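User: Quick sanity check before I run a bigger batch. Here is a single chain. Can you write out its predicted 3D structure?
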Amino acid sequence: MKKKLILLFSFLFFFVMAGQGQAFKTANAKEISLFPQQNAFRNTLNLSGVWKFKKDSLNVGESEKWFNGLRNSRPIAVPGSWNDQFEEFSDYVGKAWYETDTFIPESWKGQRIFIRVGAATYAAKIWINGKPLGLHEGGQMPFAFEINSLIKWHAVNRIAIQVENILKPNRVPTGGDVETKFFHNTPATNYDFFPFSGLNRAVWLYTVPAKTAISDVIVQTGFQGTVGIISVHVKTAGAAETGIVSISGGRDNIRIPFHITAGAGQAILKIPDVRLWSPVDPFLYNVTVSITEDKKIVDQYLVQTGVRTITATNKQVLLNGKPIFLKGFGKHEDFSISGRGTSLPVMIKDFSLLKWIGANSFRTSHYPYDEEYMNMADREGFLIIDEIPAVGLYFHGDTTALKQRQAQCKQDIEELINRDKNHPSVIMWSVANEPFGSATFQVQSASTPDAASGADRGMVCLGELMQLAKKKDPTRLVTFAGVMGGPQKWHTLGDVVCLNRYWGWYVGGGNIPGASTSISNELDAIYKATQKPIMLTEFGADANIPGHTDQPKMYTEEYQRDLIKAYLEVADTKDFVFGMHVWCFADFKTSAASMRPGGMNYKGVFTRDRKPKLSALYLKSRWSNEAKRDSTVRR
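Assistant: Done. Predicted structure follows.
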């Protein structure tokens, strides 16, 4: 009998432990396909505000059950990075806990209730009322979980989120003891921006109808002559068999019924005298999807979209069938105190400065930005190269880590396209920034150690990522931003070639005429090899010496301005160059390193607090004059 009891106890103990280990659900990318929306059938509650916060540097939070309530906590702002809110957290790498309490409105009964975290860098676990809910890895994308089984009615609900930001070689972006050995910095990133951590974007509670609901809406647009064409694909959960798509905002209100079969339906609508979306006229139509049961609407979702097309020839990128020249910047979500946390006033200021300077585009270097950036770009007419967090990739060394990074990159692409697929501002998916083909940051010739194997592996990995992006969204262009000296054959994979180049700065520093010759020759060579339109997605110089000089010397505003001017003048002579993005929009924080005085990158044409440098004034003069001629086409 005693032996049987021991066996029974052992079984129960194993079952309980196994249950604890498996209790966390893994986030499903499909749950972020539709942003939370308030209407007659759905509800939202933004949990942004001041939360409780506690460091877990000894990694004891789970064993001590901090999810049942944080003791000796301190207040922290959400959204916001933890690094600049507390002095001792500046370079902290480890775990920390967030907690807030909330009531669930009585009116939400009978609906499916979800929590949606806008971004938790880098990995997160969630508990509701002390019970494990779900986990997510990947720091710059949202994730969501249904919470109905864990909530309390007529009582406070405790939400606890553990966030962990450890830098590892197998993560995206890479960090820790990586094999490239180029960056020697603290914290040990393998990329040139600061690893701001925490709950950097808003946390939402939201509902969808329990019985029958819209689970996704995919809007694709085109036109023939003056007639706009909008194709709306609808995915549903539940028993709905019919629906209606309506379009408003233009001259006519258009309604088209559709049938739902096996949880999917489609409607194609034609808009006479369509207004095409562009930087000149960023006109948005309201596309409302309703699904019905017994002729009664049971769920509804609104998407704002612009009718436009984006294609590429062997020399140009065409917006609505006409050449478009991209003028703008790479930039960062970065600001003092808030770090990478969403700051709507900073966002508004940045868009105001982008318009002031005459830009029409930017790249989300080097990670997806908050959805509000996409919404604002839709309304203001900016073109976006939308980039996953795959910066600092390399393809030599540990194949296990390589496979883990590749899996994460694919997850990032799935999540990014699910999130941003309906934004007319997004014209291009970038699957990586400056991936390395070899173990060192140098010209990667056949004699470079690991160059051949790294280049071949990179060809396969980047090819898989671009194919995945194309499969999920065949309506946009795909690319990656190539590093100096990177394998040229990689650029045959994308629709267009994007290059980051620093002749006159990291190579041939101080020699602007030499930089002009080098970039001109390289552009010609790459175009000859690829026969694809080329864009410089990064070029520039640091400017952090106060005052001005009579001769442009490195680190002065004069040198930065003149180097940018030289690159733009070279681009003017190349009919296959379709865009120039200066690196970068504003100065930003980096890890501490000898090449980054004060832990800052000073390549911004604006200071970190958004004051213009000489290069900003030069670009405003140049781009404003071009806009007077034609704000859509360069010449």
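The first strand starts at residue 25 and ends at 26.

User: Great, the batch can go ahead then.
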